[in-house]
Amino acid sequence: MSAYETELEKYEIEYIVHTEERIDKYRPGGLHPVAIEDTFSNGRYTVYNKLGHGGSSTVWVALDESTDEWVAIKILTAERSRRSRELRSYQRLARLPQELGLSTYFVQLRDHFFHQGPNGKHLCLVTELLGPRLPVVLEQLGDKDTWLAPNIVLKVAQRLLEAIEVLHRAGFTHGVDLNMNNIVFTCRRLASIEGGIWTELTSHVSCKLVRRDGSPLSPSVPKEYVETEPWYDWNDEEFEEIKILDLGETFRQGQKRSPCTLPGECRAPEVIFEDSFDHRTDLWQAGCAIYMLVFHMFPFYAIGGDRDLVLTMMDILGDLPKEWIPRWEKIQQASIYSSGPLDPESANGRRPNPSIYYGTRKVPEETLRILVPVIKGLLTYKRSSRLSALEALQMLEKLKSEEGDGTPALS
Length: 411
Hints:
The longest helix has 20 residues, at 150-169. With 411 residues, the protein is of the alpha+beta class. The protein is globular. It has a six-stranded antiparallel sheet with strand order 2-3-4-5-7-6. The protein contains 15 helices and 14 strands. ATP binds at residue 74. Residues 45-399 form the Protein kinase domain.
């Protein structure tokens, strides 16, 4: 039994505990136990709901009592608070010229402070309040057997590329966290309605935490578990823009960074075969996100690890570069899922279809065909062959113009 399972066994568990942050993260050095209507920074911020959680933080909806504005507070674990890359990234980006327009595309830090709790001293990052993450909206639409309208897909794709172009022009790389979970809709319309945030975001679902042996709770754990805001009534994607979250892995272009683990479906080939990544890895991740928006699925999957991930890359992109074959053979040999030696004629015997069917998948919406050349330009094995964000935007504008003139966007 794992340490997590052992910790769970101590409590009368309801479903919320299984779907939220791990209970074993509430320990000295770990997460801070937050309760609804807790106050922070000498009473300035009052918490009313939970926006999300991760391995090293929880995020809460709060009212700034000094300005009467709604904000989000990200509370880091005590261990991660000691040296926060995210805070340093916010501070570096804040020193850049405002004319770059970073605030248009990236979440803005409003305030930060430290809070002493039973598990240690926690860094709290106060940002503008944003709406639901893109995967939340897609999941809810999927439950209704529908999808984002094509004009919204185009808007989100263009906005994502614009954000990357601005960041790269400023000389920075977003890093490993430029994935679907960090693409978030704004919620300006809801905030502009009198009482809108209060009505929609201050009601919450929670369950009390109770020990099986009847003993009192440790001060390290929360008295109740709060469910992450599900945004069930959200339908404002037509009126809102997107912004990018999580700047904790941002770094200057040209700066050496250790090889890292990207999220499975977005793991770029250079991380697998060259043990490195740079600003052009942002472009691969953008290509994966735009592909998902167009085809309703990720282009690649990694259920069996790197071997299966690379095989799905080959399905769409074709044979690997020759210089990667020795590493590929080692990956095959090391994989418990290995199915034998490589086909000498082709890296895996599969060939991509170069038509408007990207791989074997047909573009669901005809108006989104103009995004296919952009995706192809972003999802290339070699970083040197990838479109820059500016080139991708220029291509998209050209294809939109041709489409508007009645000129076929694809041959």
